[in-house]
């Protein structure tokens, strides 16, 4: 098993955003361990220590259910995302686990072609080695703004 290197972390990020940006959401939960933690929150709520968020999931099954509801139950305007990431800062690394902070920007492209900056913020991640792969044990998506002017349909 290889160690957790910056190159492997970058590859994990690249595969993750490619999955979402290409609307291959059924594969999205596979980027996480089980159990896991995936939360989308605002910078203010994160600073205040509020544990909940606009999206909250603590198992891979909850992530799978989110995708199933996006595909079959939720009604939302057709849209896609384009993620732009900064370089991850590795805050801790050792014992088969690394903590990272990565800035992001997400553009949302609507069905009619209108493109807007949808979200900016940072990913606060804990990644772990899982066999030959890296997986997210925890991904806290801290959005700079608490204002999401439409349904937060797709995962960030």
């Amino acid at each position: 098993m290889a160690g957790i290197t910056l190159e492997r972390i970058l590859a994990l990020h690249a595969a993750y955003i490619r999955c979402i940006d290409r609307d291959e959401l059924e594969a999205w939960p596979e980027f996480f361990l089980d159990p896991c933690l995936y939360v989308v929150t605002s910078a203010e709520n994160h600073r205040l220590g509020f544990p909940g968020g606009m999206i909250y999931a603590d198992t891979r099954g909850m992530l799978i259910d989110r995708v199933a509801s996006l595909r079959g139950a939720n009604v939302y305007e057709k849209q896609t995302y384009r993620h732009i990431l900064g370089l991850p800062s590795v805050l801790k690394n050792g014992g088969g686990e690394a903590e990272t902070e990565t800035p992001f920007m997400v553009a949302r492209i609507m069905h009619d072609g209108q493109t807007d900056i949808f979200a900016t913020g940072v990913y606060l991640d804990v990644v772990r080695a899982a066999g030959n792969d890296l997986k997210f044990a925890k991904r806290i998506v801290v959005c700079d703004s608490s204002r999401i002017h439409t349904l937060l349909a797709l995962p960030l």
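The helical segments are 6-21, 43-47, 60-72. The longest strand covers residues 115-130.
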